[in-house]
Design goal:
The complex is a heterodimer of chains A (434) and B (337).
Chain A (H helix, E strand, L loop, with lengths): L2 H40 L2 H35 L1 H34 L6 H30 L4 E3 L5 E4 L1 H5 L4 H29 L5 H35 L1 H8 L5 E2 L3 E3 L2 E3 L4 E3 L2 E3 L2 H7 L5 E2 L13 H32 L6 H29 L2 E3 L3 E2 L10 H33 L1
Antiparallel strand pairs in A: 1-2, 3-8, 4-7, 5-6, 9-10
Helix pairs in contact in A: 1-2, 1-4, 1-6, 1-12, 2-3, 2-7, 2-12, 3-4, 4-6, 6-7, 6-11, 7-8, 7-10, 8-10, 8-11, 10-11
Chain B lengths: L2 H31 L6 H12 L3 H18 L1 H10 L1 H23 L9 H25 L5 E2 L2 E2 L10 H25 L4 H40 L3 H19 L3 H23 L2 E3 L3 E2 H4 L3 H30 L11
Antiparallel strand pairs in B: 1-2, 3-4
Helix pairs in contact in B: 1-2, 1-3, 1-6, 1-7, 1-10, 3-4, 3-12, 5-6, 6-7, 7-8, 7-10, 8-9, 8-10, 9-10
Classes of the chains: A mainly alpha (434), B mainly alpha (337).
Chain lengths: 434, 337
């Protein structure tokens, strides 16, 4: 395989692995903050127990997130030296800000994890605030950099492609930032909320019907429910922004080949490039135009209107988009059903079918988020910096990219397996201690 | 000093912090690997307790350096990443395995014991990471990375596969071990472990000294650039380092752990700054100067502002972290078994 493909495979695997731990690094501290805060207020020991258990699990999750994040920082240069040589001065600023946010998170996490017996209860709880805040800020800053790759701005190029001037603030606050940033931030809480709820729903299914499990489930589902609604709203504005700013990505994610007014939406189906159409899809006439511009007669540009080599692969992008939206709606409905039952019966529901649905929603939320990243990353192709720098021009010429990919792939598998094994063991030890 | 030189100095400070702090964490891994004698278990435990709360924060200095480098000196970042693809990738693998393995062992002791693959990985990866990072430093220091019109023209093995790079790699591992053992004498003050780590510190200090001399012997053509730098404008700092070396070792020898901790850390600082002061205007000697490689002024100014604001939050947080965990003597509480 050529270097560009190998570099993309390595980077994509690293990102796809890291993002799971990164979003838990954003969401878990907020849950720990709430649980420990409730313990301080109510002196109910089950809240404290939840916070302490999460703190132990988070000790592992954060470390794996930190080392896989380090991999990404290195890989930006190792795999994409030309990209970084061009872009570093323009979009490096949010990375630097993220560096500080990550620093604060790591410092206070050290205090939090190892400070249970060294700090007063109030002081200990206070250390969770900077963890939650800087965790969220890390996500906000780093997504600004990704948003710049979608909407590059804040710089002027000379005729030979050399950088004439840079406005790093304008680059950080590019046109994609207002839609992409909030969408990713709330998605982090979606994944954390459903993942935590899934753990306690699984416990309830196994007959562990106690205060701890009910509270864990309710706290997880609270975060999940609020966040999934916000994810829908921010996702909708994100899609409408893409309709305006990245028409090729928009056409690919909808599988729209012909430019047309009153464009239908394609639910599911597979785009077939050779036939210039989507097969096996449910078509709802006019709906795409309406969703994109609030006008059933609005024009949607099709893939065929772009010169060859200027469009992303519609199969991957369309299927990822439909996976994100379809599964996202399904887990949203699970959360809705859960809260309807809570409000109607004034107690935590334990119906087996619902518990199974919540257990499934945990991994489903991860798939939804990964599919979202597939949409934005594959959808930006063939560009690494949209309209400015092609991915194929950015990769390294270094040898041995194949072994690098294999080694990192093996490392990620080992890290994932061991993390899962240790979390299960922690749960078992927690129960034994109870 | 130009704005670019100020940023370069800040990045060098971050590198210094990384070497003095995270270097000791790698050294801790070395002593984990080499734990022997009747108190081997306690030695490992002292290492884990000393590193536990701080290693992740110490590690962030490296991230800070990387993002600062690609923001302020993007061309140099691209060139270094290409030229040093192999040693950086191997060091990265070491960094990833060490961090993950340490966390696995700390939070899942009954499943991931010291004899398990992850248990061994803590120590093995702690050797690999500083070794290969130092070979990369050797390539830059020896002027082996060649640049023309903003592009790398030397090949992917230039500078880091020489005998000089090998010796510098070993020197880095041994300095990490020296730092760690010295810090651990403070952490274990008043326990039998203090003697264990004192002996280890002396051994590592002597090995480091020998390797430093050996690096001069094998420097040859490749290392001459480094020597010229060290003996030029950096010579006062190098002189201080030469005087400080025996003082540091004597402080370890005569059981003055707190003085020794400062002196050994200072040794690292003096050598690093002797090099950079001697190197002067160059980022990648001899083809790329700091000012030529720098990002536009607007980026540098913004980076300095972000750094200033960030430091307002960072420095008090770091002080708090080290006051809570390093002002007392946690390992002394470990009962001998």
């Amino acid at each position: 395989m050529d270097n560009v493909t190998l570099a993309r495979a390595t980077m994509g695997t690293s990102l796809g692995f890291h993002i799971v731990f990164a979003v838990l690094g954003v969401g878990m501290p907020l849950l720990m903050l709430v649980a420990e805060g409730l313990w301080l207020r109510t002196h109910d020991a089950s809240w404290l127990m939840l916070a302490r258990r999460w703190s132990k699990a988070f000790g592992i999750l954060f470390a794996v997130g930190a080392v896989s994040g380090t991999t990404l920082a290195f890989e930006l240069g190792l795999l994409w030296p030309r990209f970084m040589a061009f872009s570093g001065a323009i979009f490096g600023l949010p990375f630097s800000a993220e560096g500080f946010a990550f620093f604060i998170e790591a410092i206070f996490l050290g205090l939090y994890l190892y400070g249970w017996d060294r700090l007063s209860p109030l002081a200990h709880w206070l250390t969770s605030i900077p963890i939650a805040v800087s965790g969220a800020l890390s996500a906000v800053f780093v997504v600004m950099a990704n948003a710049w790759m979608n909407s590059p701005s804040g710089f002027r190029l000379g005729s030979g492609g050399q950088l004439l001037s840079v406005d790093p603030i304008a680059a950080a606050l590019n046109a994609s930032t207002p839609t992409e940033d909030p969408h990713m931030l709330v998605s982090a809480y979606v994944v954390t909320g459903f993942a935590v709820a899934a753990v306690y729903a699984a416990g309830l299914l196994r007959g562990r019907d106690d205060t701890l499990h009910r509270r864990g489930l309710v706290l997880g589902m609270s975060m999940a429910a609020v966040a999934i609604v916000l994810a829908g709203i921010t996702g909708d504005s994100s899609a409408r922004f893409i309709y305006q700013a990245q028409p090729a990505k928009f056409a690919a994610l909808e599988g729209q080949y012909q430019t047309q007014r009153g464009a239908p939406i394609h639910l599911g189906g597979i785009p077939i490039d050779s036939q210039h159409r989507v097969v096996w899809a449910i078509e709802l006439p006019g709906l795409l135009s309406f969703l994109a511009a609030f006008d059933t007669n609005a024009e949607v540009r099709g893939l065929d209107s772009f010169p060859p080599g200027q469009t992303p692969n519609p199969v991957i992008v369309h299927l990822s988009f439909d996976t994100m939206v379809g599964l996202g709606i399904l887990i949203g409905l699970v959360a809705l059903l859960f809260w309807i039952l809570v409000i109607r019966n004034r107690q935590v529901p334990r119906r087996r079918l619902l518990m199974w649905a919540i257990v499934t929603s945990g991994p489903a939320a991860v798939i939804v988020m990964e599919a979202g990243w597939f949409v934005t990353e594959f959808g930006r192709q063939p560009w690494v910096v949209y309209g400015v720098l092609r991915t194929s021009d950015a990769a390294t010429t270094a040898p041995a990219l194949g072994p690098t990919f294999l080694v990192f792939f093996a490392i990620y598998v080992a890290l994932a397996v061991t993390t899962a094994r240790l979390l299960v063991l922690q749960a078992r030890r927690n129960r034994a201690a109870q | 000093m130009s704005e670019a030189e100020v940023v370069a100095a800040i990045l060098w400070l971050a590198l210094t912090a990384y070497v003095v702090l995270a270097g000791a964490d790698f050294g801790g891994g070395v002593w984990d690997l080499l734990a022997t004698g009747p108190r081997a278990r306690e030695q490992r435990r002292a290492v884990a307790e000393a590193m536990g709360p701080v290693w992740e924060a110490n590690h962030v200095w490296l991230i800070f350096m990387i993002v600062g480098l690609f923001t302020a000196f993007p061309m140099a970042f691209g060139i270094l990443s290409e030229a040093l693809y192999v040693p950086f990738t191997i060091a990265l693998i070491g960094i990833v395995l060490r961090g993950a393995a340490f966390a696995f062992r700390a939070h899942g002791r009954e499943a991931v014991g010291e004899a398990s693959p992850w248990g061994v990985a803590v120590g093995a990866a702690s050797v690999i990471a500083p070794f290969f990072l130092a070979t990369a430093v050797a390539a830059v220091a020896s002027g082996s990375i060649q640049v023309s019109a903003g592009r790398l023209i030397s090949d992917y093995t230039a500078g880091w596969t020489t005998p000089f790079a090998l010796v510098l790699g070993l020197f880095a591992v041994s300095m990490c071990a020296y730092l760690a053992a010295t810090y651990l004498t403070v952490e274990t003050e008043g326990t039998p472990l203090e003697g264990d780590f004192r002996r280890r510190a002396i051994a590592a200090g002597l090995v480091s000294g020998a390797l430093a001399l050996a690096s001069l012997a094998v420097a040859g053509e490749a290392g001459r650039a480094l020597l010229i730098a060290l003996l030029g404008r950096g010579s006062p700092l190098l002189a201080v380092a030469l005087i400080n070396g025996p003082i540091a070792l004597a402080a370890v020898w005569f059981s003055r752990p707190r003085i020794a901790r400062v002196a050994v850390a200072a040794q690292v600082v003096f050598v690093l700054w002797a090099w950079v002061v001697g190197r002067g205007d160059y980022l990648i000697y001899p083809d790329l100067t700091i000012n030529a490689a720098a990002a536009p002024s607007s980026t540098l100014t913004a980076l300095l502002v972000v750094t200033a604001v960030g430091m307002v939050f960072l420095l008090p947080s770091l002080v708090l972290l080290f006051r809570v965990f390093k002002s007392r003597n946690p390992a002394a509480a470990i009962p001998p078994t």
